[in-house]
Design brief:
Order of helices and strands: HEHEEHEHHHHHHHEHEHE
Structural class: alpha/beta
CATH architecture of the largest domain: 3-Layer(aba) Sandwich
Largest sheet: 7 strands, mixed
CATH topology of the largest domain: Rossmann fold
Shape: globular
Strand content: 5-15%
Radius of gyration: 20 Å
Length: about 300
């Protein structure tokens, strides 16, 4: 099994509009699929890649044009400045969980294996899904499932978990599924459980907060004409990216300058986003929820 098969690879690399002498960032290195394609198009340029997962370092190419940083992309600006880089010509981020992370059972990212409830992208992190389920009060859990899983029965879900953990610890996926058994709509159990696990993973890794931090920094770092290329996998993060590209904020509210002109930090290249075609989905079924958005700094 490959470490990861990038979704919308050709479309995202074209979207970067790579200059041979440009400076680019791959904010989610993973298996290195995007980085390898970027390096093919560089001559005197430079590529800086980020990944907080220790396992990704095994995929780092030996290339003098390439810098790998074992950091979360929330530290984008500080790390670039430390490496003498004040501006960039493009940034790409693939926000999906890698095949490797899903398939390594002990990482606990999926309900399909009765694995420990870990879910840490950074294995050095202190908070696991097990610890979150054990310590968060019912109100906080309900907020996590509503906000990050968009689950309408989030309060009932949180209540079931709170009751179950008084009887025994929720240590693995089976324990959690047993605690919430019966809450999923009929014939939609897999989709429901996937959203429960998605919500916990987002909370454990602070994914939404860190995504927002990275996007704000990218706006400051991109040169005029530089490209922001983001691949999302669920509606929550896609809404954030879409709003940011359109308005420069996360609420999608158009603001105006002193003269009444709308502030538009980007020219949006993909109005509706790009999704995989039937051929790609057949080759890579995990790409089916991917959506690519591209914007150019004004």
């Amino acid at each position: 099994m490959a470490y990861h098969v990038p979704a919308l690879l050709d479309e995202s690399i074209r979207g970067l509009n790579i200059r041979p002498d440009g400076i680019y960032v791959d904010a989610t290195f993973g298996g290195g699929g995007h980085s390898r394609e970027i390096l093919k198009r560089l001559k005197k340029g430079k590529l800086i890649a980020f990944d907080q997962d220790d396992d990704a370092s095994a995929n780092v190419p030996d290339d003098e044009r390439f810098i790998f940083l074992d950091q979360n992309f929330r530290f984008l600006r500080n790390n670039l400045v430390f490496n003498g880089i004040k501006s960039i010509d493009g940034l790409i981020a693939d926000l999906g969980v890698s095949f490797h992370q899903f398939d390594e059972t002990e990482r606990g990212f999926t309900f399909r294996h009765n694995a420990p409830l870990d879910m840490r992208m950074n294995k050095k992190g202190s908070l696991t899904a097990e610890a979150l389920l054990e310590t968060a009060d019912e109100e906080i859990l309900a907020g996590i499932f509503f906000s990050y899983g968009e689950l309408q029965n989030s309060r009932k879900l949180a209540r079931n978990i709170a009751e179950a953990r008084t009887k025994r610890p929720l240590k693995n996926a089976g324990d959690l599924i047993s605690a919430i058994n019966g809450l999923a709509p009929a014939r939609q159990e897999n989709k429901y459980y996937a959203r429960v696990f998605q919500a916990l993973r987002i909370a454990v890794n602070h994914e939404i907060d860190f995504l927002k931090e990275m996007l704000l920094q990218s706006l400051d770092l991109l040169t005029p004409g530089g490209r922001l290329v983001i691949i999302t996998y669920h509606s929550l993060e896609d809404r954030i990216v879409k709003n940011f590209m359109r308005t420069g904020n996360f609420d999608g509210v158009v603001t105006k300058d002193f003269y009444g002109n709308a502030r538009e930090p980007f020219r949006v290249i993909t109005k509706k986003g790009i999704t995989p075609d039937a051929d790609e989905i057949e080759r890579n079924s995990r790409s089916r929820s991917a959506r690519l958005r591209i914007a150019e700094k004004l």
